[in-house]
């Protein structure tokens, strides 16, 4: 008797597609490259400060997107609610930062 014989058809079968390690390895290498670029920019020393800060912010945003997309699996189907809640949290945090900066320089 197999598992298929025990299934009376009432349960819906879902196949889980296994990605394998390839995408995780690519995401890991991409994260390392982003970190090395940021480190090299700061270690160079002769780079313009404004450019360094802008590059570090871009690298940080890309790093967050890679971490959330691949390691937290937010790129997969069925993760729209966590994405919406995080977007709302980022929006509220951004407004709080803008309000604090506005309040300090008013």
From TrEMBL:
It is a multi-pass membrane protein. This is Cytochrome C oxidase subunit IV. Pfam families: COX4_pro (PF03626). It is found in: Cell membrane. InterPro entries: Cyt_c_oxidase_su4_prok, Cytochrome_c_oxidase_bac_sub4. The keyword Electron transport does not apply. The chain crosses the membrane at residues 25-43, 49-71, 83-105. It comes from Paenibacillus vini. It comes from the Bacteria. Keywords: Cell membrane, Membrane, Transmembrane, Transmembrane helix. Belongs to the cytochrome c oxidase bacterial subunit 4 family.
């Amino acid at each position: 008797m197999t598992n298929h014989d025990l299934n009376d058809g009432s349960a819906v079968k879902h196949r889980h597609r296994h990605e394998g390690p390839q995408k995780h390895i690519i995401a890991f290498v991409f994260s390392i490259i982003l970190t090395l670029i940021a480190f090299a920019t700061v270690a160079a020393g002769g780079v313009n400060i404004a450019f360094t800060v802008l590059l570090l912010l871009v690298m940080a945003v890309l790093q967050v997107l890679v971490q959330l997309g691949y390691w937290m699996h937010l790129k997969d189907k069925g993760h729209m609610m966590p994405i919406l809640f995080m977007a709302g949290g980022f929006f509220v945090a951004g407004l709080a930062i803008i309000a604090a900066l506005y309040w300090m320089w008013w």
